[in-house]
Amino acid sequence: MTAPTKPPHSTLPPTETAETAESVSSRGADLHAPVIDWFDENARDLPWRRPEAGAWGVMVSEFMLQQTPVNRVLPVYEQWLARWPRPADLAREAPGEAVRAWGRLGYPRRALRLHGAAAAIKERHGGDVPNDHAQLLALPGIGEYTAAAVASFAYGRRHAVLDTNVRRVFARAMTGVRYPPNATTAAERRLARALLPEDETTAARWAAASMELGALVCTARNETCHRCPIAAQCAWRLAGKPEHDGPPRRGQTYAGTDRQVRGKLLAVLREASTPVAQAALDAVWHEPIQRARALDGLVSDGLVEPLPGGLYRLPSS
Fold it and tell me: Which of 157, 173, 181, 273 is the most buried (most CB within 10 A)?
């Protein structure tokens, strides 16, 4: 008989039993009030948090904020909502216009995904962002995180919303490690669900508050524990802030990468009102093999449309 394999390391406290889940929930209950009270006093006034933003504003912000800081998102967000205040407004435009309006936010495939989601919302839901998690998850370009975030932040639903900031707060406060794993694990999802307040309104508030705590106080570097409302209960601080002993956390490079070349090529196309000749694209990067690879990647991703005669434009359909 084959011996059972050892389970992989988990970020949850030791053994996942009903008793352990109950213990985690009990510990979490001690965190809810101080974190939410802190949020009530310290939350940033961001446009997607205002009532007038609506579910569409929340969805747009969630797409834009992935891997992009708030200060870069704010001006593009304001311009986007002024131009396309409802999903149907965006759906009526060519997808290339979404790429153009995305500007220099980076990762422009997000613009295409948001356009695709807007078109599906128009077709399937009469132009209104659905409030049901399963319906949100069924939209093109929307994953588990975005569906949970929109349901929670826009509609006050009870969902575990796990972004990088929340994962870091939970890793430190609950499991005593400096950083969470590089990719979200099933154990983290179970922990997040165990920490959710039972009351739906409180759960939605907790989701926003724990995210803000990670963004402003429990940051990746130079955390300000003296400002933290749960410092006295934080397992990592109480353990003496042990250093990270997992896989190295590598920062993302940009200069000289294909991503930089893709950005330069897209900048030419965004600024052009008519199709662009190959020669104009060739001028933005000196290395022809890398330049061709980047352009091929843009075409493959649907961000650039090749035309006869060696011309290129942003996608029209």
Answer: 173
**pTM for this one?**
0.88
Give the integer Cα–Cα distance in Å for 157 and 143: 17
Residues 11, 186: Cα–Cα separation, whole Å:
9
**Six-digit token string for 300:** 């493959």
Q: Helices (H), strands (E): how many in the chain?
A: 15, 3
What is the distance between the alpha carbons of residues 215 and 203, in angstroms, rounded to a whole number? 18
Spatial CA neighbour of 153 closest among 33, 54, 64, 35: 54
Burial class (CB in 10 A: 0-12, 13-18, 19+), 131: middle
Does the pLDDT at position 224 exceed 90? Answer: yes
Strand partners, 305: 313
Q: What is the mean pLDDT of the chain?
A: 91
Q: What is the pLDDT of residues 2-59, one digit of tens each?
A: 343 333 333 444 334 344 667 777 777 899 999 999 999 999 999 999 999 999 999 9
Q: Of 300, 296, 310, 295, which Cα lies nearest the Cα of 261?
A: 295
Taking residue 68's Cβ as centre, other Cβ atoms within 10 Å add up to 16
Using CA atoms, how far residue 281 sits from 70, 109, 246, 266, in Å, is 31, 20, 42, 9
d(CA 303, CA 297): 9
pLDDT at 7 (0 to 100): 35
Greatest alpha-carbon pair distance for the chain in Å reads 69
Q: What's the rounded Cα separation, in Å, for the pair 217 and 310?
A: 51
Q: Is the pLDDT score of 1 beyond 70?
A: no
* SS3 state at 127: coil
